[in-house]
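User: Hello! I'm new to structural biology and keep hearing that structure can be predicted from sequence alone. Could you demonstrate with DDE domain-containing protein? Please show me the input and the output so I can see what each looks like.

Assistant: Of course. The first part below is the input, the amino acid sequence of DDE domain-containing protein. The second part is the output, the predicted structure written as tokens.
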Amino acid sequence: MGPRPGNRCENLRLLLSPHEKHEEKRLAEVEQLTRYHRDEQLALATHTDVGSRNQFGSRRVPPFPLQLWSTCERTLQGHGRTNNYAEAAHRRLRSELGVDHLSIWRFVNGLRTVQAGRDQQFESFLRGDEPPRKRLKYLRADERIRRLVENFTVESAISYLRGLAHNVMIN
């Protein structure tokens, strides 16, 4: 069961699933997925992931090569897929500021408030407090993804990607 021609969102999620360590396999999967859709989001994902095609038919060097962002080895070693520091900082800043368009002074004051909270949390770690535990749903998702990565075969590449896409949400 391969990509579905009418299911653009799922195919895009398959393309963006952070998984692969073998670039040749990733290129074959991208070729198979891009057969069905020709739109700007898919073109951008292909350009940044594996490189767009040049006039001679070969691929350009992508701005974010696979080796830079692949989490396959981390998953196989049992480590977290990401450290989520950037995502957590962005969420904290967005919730603290509370608006989309703000003045420079409100932005600076928001940064000060967020920094004060980070300093307080750092001090609690220094005194020996444990960091918060990972939520059970994320622990279960990590385990499911680890099993998928360990059982990967080339013959089931699209099924593998679909399984990963079910565990990865793109906002």
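User: So the tokens describe the shape?

Assistant: Right, they're a compact way of writing down the 3D structure. Reading them back into a model, for example: The radius of gyration is 20 Å.
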